Amino acid sequence: MNEAGGEPNLYVEGVIALVVAAAFVLFAMTLIKERHRDVAQWHVAVGAAIYGAVIGIVVGFVIVPLRMVLMNGHVTPQTAALSGLGLVSFTMALRRGLIGRLPFLGPQVKAYRRALLRRTIEAAQKQLDKLTAPAAAE
What we know:
- This protein is mainly α and 138 residues long.
- The protein has one domain.
- 76% of the residues lie in helices and 0% in strands.
- The protein has helices at 10-31, 41-72, 77-95, 106-137.
């Protein structure tokens, strides 16, 4: 909301959504290496942009306004709790692959998620090797 308490100012929410989407793309282009990908890098970058845009929209247009409304005291705690449960459910659906099932956007999002999962597995394996190396020497 603006200073006068009238109509909402969507510039802040839009900037938040763009920053989150840009962060996803930057992460995908810098940290996801060739060994993690099974398709061209642009597929992974487009998938990261789509995934980041959806997450950014949720953060910018749902979480930030909900926080501002709660801070002003215009919503009862019961309504806020129900909104929070709906938001958590939606976020869980996104994390479970809801975007990957979309007809035109799905292949790029799946490429991004596969590459990210391979990177996560590689990082977890490195941490596991560090934790088990001294035990094997004993």
